[in-house]
Amino acid sequence: MVPLSRQAIERAIEINGAAVDANKARQLALIAALGLAIPATRVVHRAIDIPSAAAELRFPIVVKANIGGSGAGIMRYETTEDLALAVADKFLPTSIDGVLLVQEYVPARDGRITRIETLDRKFLYALDIDGGGQFDLCPADACVADGKPIAMTQVDPGPELIDAAERIAAAAGLDVGGIEVMIDDRDGVPRFYDINALSNFVAKPLDVLGWDPHEKLIDYLEAEIAKVKG
Question: What gap in Å lies between CA 43 and CA 28, rounded to an integer?
């Protein structure tokens, strides 16, 4: 086996966007720096600081692991009393880096989130995914909610959301991946909240999209390999 050069390793990391994908706090900071709306969020390093961070937010709130995935490591608290009890009992999520996000729970309009897939930092397709109020949401055909597959529908998110997703992908160095956004039912504001590198493209693309995005992914990867080979 020929070992990868440092340049090849760095290029691989750039393609899969792992540096941003693994860190939710960095994702939100990047999105906010672009002038785009995110859920109101506070970042804490100690559980004891969670109640004071939450005091600046509207309840219900959620506490999230900074490093997680598919909704793993998220708990919802309805009141300040519920949260104080959870902190006292240490009934909280844990994150491998010790960092937690305290965040206003955003009621997604119609219980739906939109996942905008990008390739080469450009719009590829978008899906509306039912179940926006559930924490273990994972927009892949294998994911289920209450024992049933999550419903997904191809959607045109419109030029503003497409432009925003492409700006996020460019700022994150995300060559292939998905950007997730929900419409806040309280005020109608689109709030971007997640960046997913190396997105799991829809498993039955011909049924859902009418075409196969994997073909465009292969074309892109072949072009990138050709660049490296010179």
Answer: 10
Give the CATH number of domain 40-105; options: 2.40.50.140, 3.40.50.2300, 3.40.50.970, 3.30.1490.20.
3.30.1490.20
Domain ranges of the chain: 1-38+106-230, 40-105
Model pLDDT for residues 172-208, shown as the tens digit of each residue = 988 888 999 999 999 999 999 999 886 667 777 888 8
Where does 1-38+106-230 sit in CATH, by number?
A: 3.30.470.20
Report in angstroms the alpha-carbon separations of 213 from 10, 157, 176: 25, 17, 11
Integer Cα distance of 135 and 185 in angstroms: 17
Amino acid at 84: A
Q: What is the model's pTM?
A: 0.84
Are 50 and 87 spatial neighbours (Cβ–Cβ below 8 Å)? yes
